[in-house]
Amino acid sequence: MSAIQQLEELKTTALAELDEIADLRRLASWRVRYLGKKSRLTGILRGLAGLSLEEKKAVGAAANKLKLTLEEGFEQWQQALRDKRVLASTEKEGIDISLPGRFQPAGRLHPVTQVTAEINDIFISMGFEVVEGPEVELDYYNFEALNIPREHPARDTMATLWVDHGTDGGQQPMLLRTHTSPMQIRVMEKVPPPLRIVVPGKVYRYEATDATHIPMFYQIEGLAVDKGITMADLKGTLYEFARRFFGEDRRVRFRCDYFPFVEPGAEMAIECAVCRGSGCRLCGSSGWIEILGAGMVHPWVLERVNIDPEIYSGFAFGMGIERIPMLRYGVDDIRLFYGSDLRFLRQF
Ligand code: DAH
Questions:
Q1: 169 pLDDT exceeds 80?
Q2: Coil, strand or helix: which one is 66?
Q3: Count of alpha carbons within 13 Å of 216, Cβ hemisphere only?
Q4: Residue 96 buriedness (CB in 10 A; 0-12 / 13-18 / 19+)
Q5: What is the pTM assigned to this prediction?
Q6: Among residues 92, 240, 241, 307, which one has the fewest Cβ atoms lying within 10 Å of its Cβ?
Q7: Distance from Cα 274 to the centre of ligand 1, integer Å
Q8: Range list of H helices, the chain
Q9: Does 142 contact ligand 1 (Cβ within 6 A)?
Q10: What residues contact 42, with CB distance under 8 A and at least 6 apart?
Q11: What is the mean pLDDT of residues 49-69?
């Protein structure tokens, strides 16, 4: 029998057998038998080398055509058997397992949560530890111990939501913390230096709401106390943060500022994302956006928690968190973060 005849015969038997197959397991063994390495078809294709040029052309073409036919037959039959199986189980169980699944909405982290985690990670990599503190705070920690006694004008800059004025019965005045700085005192009271912490959390101010003010927002506080800490450590740490968070090419500005609990005090701004320093609406045409207050921990603050300022020194900083995603994503209204509008929140 010539090779061509053999191929013809092979085709007839293979296709006839295929027609009889009713399950996927037998279909798989059919494929091995007719298309596998030890199949006759593979044998014929391998034997081509020994044929004359003319035979090679004719037999080669026919063998390849048969291979394609068998492969196609396999695919089609496989699909048909699968469809049949779906249909059978649908009839038996009364459900259509070929229907697409129901859409399950996936939750995501709030943009402020995402940014807080990112900021934490940067400081963790520089050796800081993350701690949290109470939102209902004593006057002592929020003001008094931070060098802001009663009648100090700095109290006016942070309109306070009082929980208890503490007027009667020797009760201590209580409030919703106006900043995360009170945690500096709480930590230094308990933990002896050296220490390096960051404190993310909510703070509250009694303020009218507008595009840049809301009565509850987030801050992150930083504190490092050790022997020999200088302003250079403060600057180096904050510059490294800015470089990592905003990128190498963003300019940073560091200037003097006043806060009662640091000496000297400073303020850090970064180049406006929108105008890159030339001045626009977002940055109030200054080209810069302030992101944090900072400074060297005031010796009086250290003394109050029994840390000797002759031996130890420290730096501190406090940063508003919402500003950072606002700057990064060009959000021009802080209220959007807390308006629960999913169309806004789903973008992050
Ligand atoms: N607590 C200040 C505020 O809310 C920010 C601040 C300034 C924090 C200077 C600091 C600091 O730790 O050193 O306005």
A1: no
A2: helix
A3: 9
A4: exposed
A5: 0.72
A6: 92
A7: 26
A8: 3-20, 24-35, 40-47, 53-93, 111-125, 139-142, 182-190, 231-246, 299-304, 323-329, 342-345
A9: no
A10: 35, 36
A11: 89
